[in-house]
Amino acid sequence: MDYIQWYPGHIAKAEKKLKEQIGIVDVVIEVIDARIPVSSSYPDIEKLLKDKPRLILMNKSDLADIEQTKIWQKAIKEQSRCAVITTSSSDNRDLSKILNKITELGQAKIIALVKKGLLPRAVRVMVVGMPNVGKSSIINKLIKKTKAKTGAKAGVTREQQWVRINPKVDLLDTPGIIPLKLENQENACKLAFVDSIGENAYDVEFIAQKFIEIMNNNYPNLLKEYYKIDDEDINLENIALKRNWIVSGAKADTKRCAQNILNDFRSGRMGKLTLDKYE
Ligand SMILES: Nc1nc2c(ncn2[C@@H]2O[C@H](COP(=O)(O)OP(=O)(O)OP(=O)(O)O)[C@@H](O)[C@H]2O)c(=O)[nH]1
Ligand SMILES: [Mg+2]
Q: How far, in Å, is the centroid of ligand 2 from the Cα of 81?
């Protein structure tokens, strides 16, 4: 059964535009969310990007499990044969690494142009990825200005926008894209956990319950300790009752509870967590 399918008009348009522009760029930066490195990787990305040189950024690494991030970084590098850099908006040490890598990946193209007798130009870099992974934030960090609009929900960037980083690098910010069909529904739920999917596309209680299941598998007991639940089972009802989230008739307010659980995870309050477990 499909719990989540989400392909709004602005994403269809963004994908079309991306395909139109890919021919004129030299390098692609793919941004993924370090908490779900597999679920936030666009399936069939090589096909979409027509084998352009690619740099992968595992962003939001400040929110992800440090050990898991190390393991995933190595595994993704081996599997994709691309450079993989961990990044976070709270740390600027990754900036020079990103710029050096872009320049290195784009150099072959610029040298080829000069050989043909053309003038050298800036390397053209397209930044792509699923919604809300932090594409615009990375661009702002690279230009040290708030030029690209950012925000906590999916679908903040609506149009492509070129930004000059320095005379040698131009970046194209693009709206987040998501596949037409979300084949793997467990991955789709994880995209909902990290706000990569518009919240109107799913039932928040269902998604929070899925979150509890996945957490129990990846981090047994963490939720029980976080919400101080002694019962054998942990669910929306007993968390709501423990926190005193009640609706009329002394019933558990499971909707409010679901929203709060997801917010506690998204903000990092629950700890540094990775939900795609490397096994
Ligand atoms: N904790 C943390 N938050 C981040 C990081 N990078 C971005 N964010 C936050 O994540 C949210 C999404 O960032 P954006 O840069 O707008 O993401 P985007 O990929 O451009 O999103 P769309 O344009 O909607 O596709 C914002 O609230 C950012 O402040 C990071 O490294 N760590
Ligand atoms: Mg954006």
A: 26
Say yes or no: 127 and 226 in one domain: no
150 in contact with ligand 1, CB cutoff 6 A: yes
CB 72 within 8 A of CB 37: yes
Query: Quick one: pLDDT at residue 71?
Result: 98
The answer on 169 and 208 residing in a single domain is: no
CA atoms within 13 A on the CB side of 215: 25
pLDDT digits (tens, 9 = 90+) for 107-160: 999 999 999 999 999 999 999 999 999 999 999 999 987 888 999 999 999 999
Q: Best mutation site among 69, 132, 135 for ligand 1, i.e. most ligand atoms within 8 A of its Cβ? A: 132
Question: Containing domain of residue 220, as a range?
Answer: 203-266
Number of domains in the chain: 2
Q: Tell me the β-bridge partners of 126.
A: 28, 172
Nearest bound ligand to the CA of residue 131: 1
**Whether residues 218 and 97 fall in one domain:** no
